[in-house]
Amino acid sequence: xxxxxxxxxxxxxxxxxxxxxxxxxxxxxxxxxxxxxxxxxxxxxxxxxxxxxxxxxxxxxxxxxxxxxxxxxxxxxxxxxxxxxxxxxxxxxxxxxxxxxxxxxxxxxxxxxxxxxxxxxxxxxxxxxxxxxxxxxxxxxxxxxxxxxxxxxxxxxxxxxxxxxxxxxxxxxxxxxxxxxxxxxxxxxxxxxxxxxxxxxxxxxxxxxxxxxxxxxxxxxxxxx
Length: 225
Ligand SMILES: Nc1nc2c(ncn2[C@@H]2O[C@H](COP(=O)(O)OP(=O)(O)OP(=O)(O)O)[C@@H](O)[C@H]2O)c(=O)[nH]1
Ligand SMILES: [Mg+2]
What we know:
CATH class: Alpha Beta
Radius of gyration: 18 Å
Distance between the termini: 54 Å
Bound molecules: guanosine-5'-triphosphate, magnesium ion
Structural class: alpha/beta
């Protein structure tokens, strides 16, 4: 098979990077911390967001854009907790910035402190798409196995924090927390870890404090810019 190389003489990703940076800057200007939550299907993203909203000290300060291949089931679950807009990809296995921007236009952002993006359940493709977030958080449930960081490195390498979910199930599954963290830190040495049971609230204080601290840092940076 012969290979033909076509020189295009421009960085094809540059426009996407610039668009994501512009989106991020706009949210920064409005004092909104944007958190892109990624995980494999069923790791517990929606349940974590429900629990986070319940534990948030000031009501009405969180909003969410939720991505799914089909159905608005997650939006229905999240609607009692915070303003939500469902982003249905129609088959695509990840969210892209253009769809996020369209969704955002349908949300009232007055008073919002944190905008969550629940990505499509998939530990591979979402890691390759900058949605203009300030923080990327990868969730992994203990039932998925402690060997996943090395197998799905980009999801961990491009994240700043990792929530280990379904911690209540730890006694029932062979998940070595220390081995998991060591494996993850091989690909992302400064990853912050949170152990979580969203059903009971175990680990919620640390997670909420982390989000509040990240927003405080964002506001400080904006004020000194
Ligand atoms: N035991 C236990 N189950 C949990 C916990 N968090 C979520 N679950 C259950 O895990 C299942 C999947 O949770 P979801 O929150 O829907 O997961 P998700 O990541 O949003 O799923 P997708 O959006 O489909 O990718 C549900 O049956 C939850 O009740 C937890 O902390 N402990
Ligand atoms: Mg979900």
